[in-house]
Amino acid sequence: MPGKQDDTFIISQVLDGDRNAFALLLERYEGHVSHLVAAHVPGQHVAEVAHDAFIRAYKSLAGYKPLKPFSNWLTTIALRSCHDFWRKRYRNRETPACDMSDDGQQWLENAMAPDSNEIFESQIRQREAREVLAMALEQISPMDRMVLTLTYLEERTIKEAAQMLDISVPNVKIRAYRAKRTLKAFLKRCGIQGGTHDA
Fold first, then answer.
1. Contact partners, residue 111, CB within 8 Å, separation at least 6
2. Which of 26, 85, 130, 166 is the 20 to 30 Å CA partner of 46?
3. What is residue 181's predicted lDDT score, i.e. its pLDDT?
4. Statement to judge: residues 135 and 177 lie in one domain
5. Are residues 56 and 114 located together in one domain of the fold?
6. Range 173-188 average pLDDT
7. CA-to-CA distance for 42 and 40, rounded, in angstroms?
8. How far is CA 190 from each of CA 5, 77, 111, 142, rounded to the nearest angstrom?
9. Predicted local confidence at residue 108, as pLDDT
């Protein structure tokens, strides 16, 4: 595949001391990384986290093995940058009991319902829905948040999430289960009963 060969050639140039060659990779994958990061962090922080991902990629370039596409390797680095963003936020977070409007509680109840895919897909794009979801996701650890976002919200397979996060399949399963349980406990504190029972 010519694209893969091009990436490998550009990487070899960078590693041979041509720092300017990295700009070609930046230009080629800037959209991919920004789109990925935008799905995981608030809009005002996308540029900052994407920039951090490229800095990490540049510093770690010598460790890239062309056994898988460069875009896959870069995806893992971008997701780690998103994870670290939430880890910093998680350390400084306040844990509210439940401070949601009735509309917010109703939305979250619908989103957690077993048959909520259509409802969720239509509402996740709405600003209020995103704010409610963000409040709920603040209740779980950064890595659990990444797992839940990939597997539940983005509907990635367990295997895909494991590859993207560079962790094991059993680890993804455990984290997804734990994250859902924590969110259900949060719903219960908010007085939301529907959609909180395990299937």
1. 119, 120, 123, 124, 129, 133, 195
2. 166
3. 85
4. yes
5. no
6. 83
7. 7
8. 53, 35, 14, 22
9. 57
